[in-house]
Amino acid sequence: MTRSKRLYRIADHVGQDQEAAARELTRLGGQLQEHEEQLARLHEYCQGYHQQLAEAQARGGSAARLANYSQFLARLNEAIRQQEHNVASAGRAFEQQRQVWIEARARVKAVEKAAERCAAEEARTEEKREQRHNDDLNLTRLMRGKQS
């Protein structure tokens, strides 16, 4: 097996690593998007409850009811903080995986380029060999023609 063929096989193997990294990147991107969407829903929900609390206060709602709104909003704000943490963690994981994918892609390109250079060198070597062979044949024919 020629060196270029071995390198192309290595490139295929490294390409599989790149594809696996891309699949993981896609999966992590989906998780990040889900966390961001959940955070947006929590913010909308919180905004709605703040509005309900303001309306209850304007109507002069009972102290117990206002306390319940406040307690629920505190829990909701804690859920938002937790979801913000989840978004940040998912974002870091996505960026780390993006770097893994970029490095894998660079390895594939490097091995493919090396394989292409080897293939070109092998082609030049083969071309020179064929030229030498043809030159030898022509020289032999010429020598035979002179002997006749």
Automatic annotation (TrEMBL):
Residue spans crossing the bilayer: none
What's this protein's name? Answer: Flagellar FliJ protein
Q: What is its main location?
A: membrane
Family label: Belongs to the FliJ family.
Matching entries from InterPro entries are given as: Flag_assembly_chemotaxis_eff, Flagell_FliJ, FliJ
GO BP annotations listed? bacterial-type flagellum organization; bacterial-type flagellum-dependent cell motility; chemotaxis; protein transport
One matching Pfam family? FliJ
Q: Which gene encodes it?
A: fliJ
Membrane topology per the record?
Peripheral membrane protein
Q: Provide the protein's localization.
A: Cell membrane
Residue segments, region Disordered: 120-148
The GO cellular component terms are: bacterial-type flagellum; plasma membrane
The Basic and acidic residues compositionally biased stretches are 120-138
Key words of the record: Bacterial flagellum biogenesis, Bacterial flagellum protein export, Cell membrane, Cell projection, Chemotaxis, Cilium, Flagellum, Membrane, Protein transport, Transport
